Amino acid sequence: xxxxxxxxxxxxxxxxxxxxxxxxxxxxxxxxxxxxxxxxxxxxxxxxxxxxxxxxxxxxxxxxxxxxxxxxxxxxxxxxxxxxxxxxxxxxxxxxxxxxxxxxxxxxxxxxxxxxxxxxxxxxxxxxxxxxxxxxxxxxxxxxxxxxxxxxxxxxxxxxxxxxxxxxxxxxxxxxxxxxxxxxxxxxxxxxxxxxxxxxxxxxxxxxxxxxxxxxxxxxxxxxxxxxxxxxxxxxxxxxxxxxxxxxxxxxxxxxxxxxxxxxxxxxxxxxxxxxxxxxxxxxxxxxxxxxxxxxxxxxxxxxxxxxxxxxxxxxxxxxxxxxxxxxxxxxxxxxxxxxxxxxxxxxxxxxxxxxxxxxxxxxxxxxxxxxxxxxxxxxxxxxxxxxxxxxxxxxxxxxxxxxxxxxxxxxxxxxxxxxxxxxxxxxxxxxxxxxxxxxxxxxxxxxxxxxxxxxxxxxxxxxxxxxxxxxxxxxxxxxxxxxxxxxxxxxxxxxxxxxxxxxxxxxxxxxxxxxxxxxxxxxxxxxxxxxxxxxxxxxxxxxxxxxxxxxxxxxxxxxxxxxxxxxxxxxxxxxxxxxxxxxxxxxxxxxxxxxxxxxxxxxxxxxxxxxxxxxx
Length: 617
Known about the structure:
Mean pLDDT: 87
Low-confidence stretches: 163-169
Helix content: 55-70%
Number of helices: 20
Number of strands: 12
Structural class: alpha/beta
Distance between the termini: 48 Å
């Protein structure tokens, strides 16, 4: 399937590259036509003034050549837009091919979301270079990137106890997760549509925060409401009609031509004096919004074209395609308002249109109407685009990993985790599948040599559970889970800047773990070497004491350790503690099986590997 996917992306890249080359050739033709028609128009005008006869013919030809120039210029502009879109599509397919080769440098790594204090994202490689987010992120808006990060950061936090009422906070249900997974998989099947979506963010990601900031400035802009008055509007239309009537009468009757001139002059000064300040205030808020807003309008149009069947996708589209709210229509109107504000930079044009059409008055009127009618709904529309943007990233990840399977999420008031053929999503074909079952309120002590696969296995448990809770397929032949809270401690580090030693950092993390478990209905903890920062005996005693204490809470745990003595807890409490291991074979060379089996590891490799190094001294 990997080869089929690569072949598809390569074929698409070649197809659009050829199309881009054809468009470039067309572009050169249109430039040539523009140049030829422009020169011809100038030549005809010159001949009309120098040739004694046929002046009207040469003028007619000049007009015809000018029309040809304008037509070629329009076609060239359309071709340039299409060329840019095609180039962006080529960029999308090029990045997908690099991603198949393990090169994610062209994608967002989400480094800004790294949080060492988070319950699980830091240990599970959710953010940062080569992370799950880095492999998944295709967001074209910063709002979509934030939404994707928020989903991965909160999906596995599970039900929280309400100490006052003794009830749980609302959490995802099996039904809601199934609906989300259905929506994501529907988008995964829409490859052409997703590619068009992702092509919009190849040059410059749309900055959602800037859009919201500008819209908030628009909301705060205080402009007098008199332009909305029907009386004022009637007077404005009367003024426009009266001016053009005076122009016609000046041509057809003895009416002095000074009348329309003075009429236009008075109109200009009235409009300029009354409207220049309100428009200056409006421009402050939206002056740099234009290009960003155009991208949002294109994304909304693309969403409306989707026509989804999945309920959650349909709900998003209906928010924008609702005739009552008029989301798309309102943003198109805002785009035209911003166009009008931009055109005011041309002083001569502004004077002309104010004098003849009272354009500034009608621009203020449209701004006020938009501000009062739509401004309060825009945040919801932008949030809708952000949600779709995040789903597109998830859907593309699913499309690129057809080997992943849909998990079964069950409703249960206990920890359920059953997996067959579980692998880590980052390892691809090299991954060794494992079967593992976690029983509620039980603890699994995993021993094994260095590099035998303990930490990778722990992360396989965590990352696949996060994927399941995000509504995505998992990397296992079969996986059955309930909804619970996930907490891990695998990468504790010191903080010298704040005077926190490694051991102290471990204690702080364990304290955070205990507080989290107290406030959650059920929790799966994943620990890699408890209390690494102290001596062996103290570490063993402390680890035993911690596990015995935590076992009184609604907690289930998987704990990796090099300390074989800790595995003896299964001898004293076989009803709660169980031993598993990753065994290695020592011979002329070390053989790693990367398979988890019941029992305690017998072989270690540190001494063996050091002997190999010492021989070279």
